[in-house]
Design brief:
The longest helix is centred in the middle third of the chain and has 21 residues. This protein starts with a strand and ends with a strand. The protein has about 750 residues and is an alpha+beta fold. The chain has 17 helices and 37 strands. About 5% of the residues have low confidence. α6 crosses α7 and α10 packs antiparallel against α11.
């Protein structure tokens, strides 16, 4: 467990296991400490990380976490390290997004009488308590804080249930604020409902809201360990007379429990209905908080053991396992215990034969997080694809940014396509393949988001639609993915059509400057041109959350072709070198706040940059990839609150670290190849199918020895600068000799 104090205490016990086999013997030291001890949920909670420290289980529906109540961008997850107040503990949160939402079903233990008659602003908090980080702890599946008023809060979860345990100081009545009106900048309730069953010690209800998700619905069932002795309830500032059912826009109630010292609450959730929320409570059949906490920890231990690293650097273990932990916070389970969920068509659907997942930050996660899932989440990949296809069946298009039964249409591209194609080409086939291909073509034929101009002109003209350069480049890549799917399915006509569209990036390349640039419908370049200029007004911006320096490298399907557009390896490397050393100034009064983690103009804090360092491999200078990757690993991540240089974005920032620290990265997220970088660890072991293990050994690796001298695969010289997914999943040993000089 991480206490938020300057010193972290770890107990290490080493067990030496000697195993003997015919004609061979080996020994190894195995670290018997729990891997969850290396996870720090507070990593990245400061600055722009936008992550929450609260309790959840892998891909769980419930994210039970504190909210500071501050109405600002760096509180998108509800929490930021610099705050010293907590206004409540709500059950849904986003992990590292650049827009905020959720914060549903807020609860706050108190021993004070809250005045509901005061003028209410749903964006302001009716109650807040001070706290100190010295009295705050967190570990996977668990969060704890002792508030300055003496109340101790302990939180854990199952998949669909949040479990609270509050310890109250003696001498005062224990109360609880259940606030369905709680909202932050991006989210406001539209309708709330409460139903009291005092005999059964259960309150059910719902919170409907609008925000980034235009029509969000959360039903809940809260069961209490102690009887409710009294309560008061209000809609905004209007006190309501007591009955069994209440409906309003801003419902909030204060529950009284008498002079008790401990109160436990179990809260089940559903996006479909009250019955689903009640059914979820069966996940925790007793009131044993410690047992539930242990069960959550065990789930995380199993999750983290999917990649076992060996290194003497304890801090690297903390960063790595916290990063691996963060890759498992989204997407989240959306179908309830009865299999039901709210669809994007606002109807209730039943997930038949699969688990429905929601929260797909596809503009971010298609790059590395989703490819990582094909290694670490083999039992979930088909359900992820089925979830994307269910969105298509309900909405008519594949999702762009799916948020709990809502299409936000945030960001660019149609990046559900590379996720599906990557899964299919890697052998995940337990979904309707023809439906998937139909959905891809339909999404590529839409007449919104500039796609009509993209098809008409072969690129998106600046004078026709915003973000024209980024959109053109990303559509071209997605079309390449469709072409590969068509080829695999024997659809030659589609293969030819989408292969041609995949070359649309060529129209954006200006050989005179070496940048991808905006041009008008008449074919003329937009002037004036400043490669350091950024505009966050997407209606007029040329690039999405960035500038020409960051967006001119997005041809993951055509790296060699881009090199040739630059005039060959030497010219390309010279241009790429300049990216990492040019002045880091971002021009423009309305530049994007997402441009962060700068090394020159390389912006590691935002996803369009994530593949760029690996480009050197294709230009014959892999040592430069190794240099930049190591520099990025060392300077853009740490194990503390400032540990993320930009938005986590539902696992992508962490997935980059997981891959790159192991020593390879999916440069093209859908071609089944992992391009070499520079491994951080002496050994990496990944259990794969048929009880086999993929092992990467980096001999003599250190901070100085970051260059790869030679590579062997199963004892034989290996001439490639990438590893295939097929080889990785078949098991074997990849051995690298590391030295301190470029090779």
């Amino acid at each position: 467990m991480f206490k938020t104090t300057p010193t972290f205490l770890f107990l290490f016990i080493f067990l030496t296991i000697i195993s003997c086999g015919k004609n061979e013997s080996s020994s190894k030291e195995e670290l018997s400490i729990s891997l969850t001890e290396y996870v720090n949920p507070f990593m990245g909670t400061a600055n722009h990380g936008h992550v929450y420290p609260g309790a959840t289980v892998p891909f769980g529906m419930v994210q039970l976490s504190p909210d500071n109540g501050t109405q600002a961008w760096d509180w998108c997850s509800g929490y930021n390290w610099i705050s010293d107040t907590i206004v409540g503990f709500s059950h849904t949160h986003l992990s590292g997004t650049g827009i905020g939402d959720l914060y549903d079903i807020s609860m706050m233990p108190t021993q004070e009488d809250i005045d509901f008659s005061k003028k209410m602003d749903p964006k302001k908090n009716v109650y807040a308590a001070k706290f100190s980080h010295e009295n705050e702890n967190a570990s996977p599946g668990f969060y704890q804080v002792k508030l300055d008023n003496g109340i101790e809060v302990n939180l854990t979860t199952s998949e669909r249930v949040g479990f609270h345990s509050y310890n109250f100081p003696k001498g005062k009545n224990a109360t609880l604020l259940l606030d369905l009106s709680f909202a932050m900048n991006w989210d406001s309730p539209t309708e709330t409902y409460l139903n009291f069953d005092l005999e059964k010690k259960i309150i059910t209800g719902y919170r409907f809201s609008t925000g980034w998700a235009k029509n969000q619905r959360v039903f809940f069932a809260a069961e209490f360990s102690n009887p409710i002795e009294n309560y008061k309830i209000a809609d905004s500032t209007s006190t309501l007379s007591k009955t069994e059912n209440y409906k309003g826009k801003y419902l909030r109630t204060q529950l009284e429990f008498g002079a008790i010292e401990n109160l436990k609450i179990k809260v089940g959730l559903s996006t479909a209905n009250e019955a689903g929320a009640i059914a979820s409570l069966k996940e925790i059949p007793n009131w044993d908080f410690d047992q539930t906490k242990k069960a959550a920890n065990d789930l995380w231990e199993k999750e983290l053991s999917k990649i076992v690293i060996q290194t003497p650097d304890e801090d690297l273990k903390k960063i790595f396992y916290t990063s691996l932990y963060r890759t498992c916070l989204a997407p989240v389970k959306m179908s309830d215990s009865n299999g039901n969920y709210k669809g994007v068509d606002n109807k209730i659907h039943t997930a038949k034969g699969f688990t429905k997942y929601g929260i797909f930050s596809l503009w971010d996660t298609f790059r590395a997080a989703n490819p990582l899932y094909t290694i670490t989440q083999k039992d979930k990949v088909n359900d992820f694809v089925k979830s994307l296809l269910s969105h298509y069946e309900e909405y008519g298009l594949l999702p762009v940014w799916s948020l709990l039964g809502n299409e936000t249409n945030t960001m660019t591209g149609y990046h559900a396509i590379p996720v599906i194609v990557d899964a299919y080409l890697k052998g995940f086939r337990d979904f309707d393949v023809e439906l998937a291909f139909e959905a891809m073509k339909k999404s590529a034929a839409q007449d919104i988001r500039g796609t009509n101009f993209y098809r008409e002109y072969g690129y998106i003209p600046y004078d026709k639609a915003g973000q024209s350069v980024t959109r053109t480049l990303e559509y071209a890549y997605d079309d390449w993915c469709i072409a590969q799917m068509a080829k695999a399915l024997g659809k030659e006509k589609d293969y030819q059509e989408f292969s041609k569209r995949a070359k649309s990036y060529e129209a954006m390349f200006d050989a005179s400057t070496g940048f991808m640039r905006a041009k008008y419908a008449d074919g003329k370049w937009k002037t004036p041109f400043d490669p350091q200029f950024s505009d966050h007004n997407f209606d007029v911006a040329e690039y999405t959350e960035g500038n020409a320096w960051q967006h001119s490298w997005f041809t993951p399907h055509a790296p060699n072709e881009l090199i040739q557009l630059h005039g060959g390896n030497d010219n390309f490397v010279k241009k790429l070198d300049s990216l990492f050393v040019v002045d880091s100034t971002i021009e423009g009064e309305n530049s994007s706040p997402d441009i962060s983690g700068l090394i020159g103009q390389y912006a590691h804090g935002n996803e369009p940059s994530h593949h760029i360092a690996y480009f050197y491999n294709f230009a014959g200078q892999p040592h430069k990839t190794q240099e930049i990757v190591r520099k990025t690993l060392a300077t853009q991540y740490n194990s503390g609150p400032t540990g993320l240089c930009g938005n986590e974005d539902c696992g992508q920032m962490s997935a980059w670290y997981v891959f790159s620290a192991m020593g390879f990265y999916p440069f093209n997220p859908a071609d089944g190849k992992y391009v070499f970088g520079s491994p951080l660890f002496e050994k990496v072991e990944i259990p794969v199918k048929n009880n086999k293990t993929f092992t990467l050994i980096a001999n003599n690796v250190s901070a100085e020895n970051k260059y790869i001298k030679s590579v062997k695969w199963n004892g034989k010289d290996y001439p490639k600068f990438y590893l295939t997914h097929e080889d990785l999943m078949s098991g074997g040993t990849l051995e690298m000799e590391m030295v301190n000089e470029p090779n």
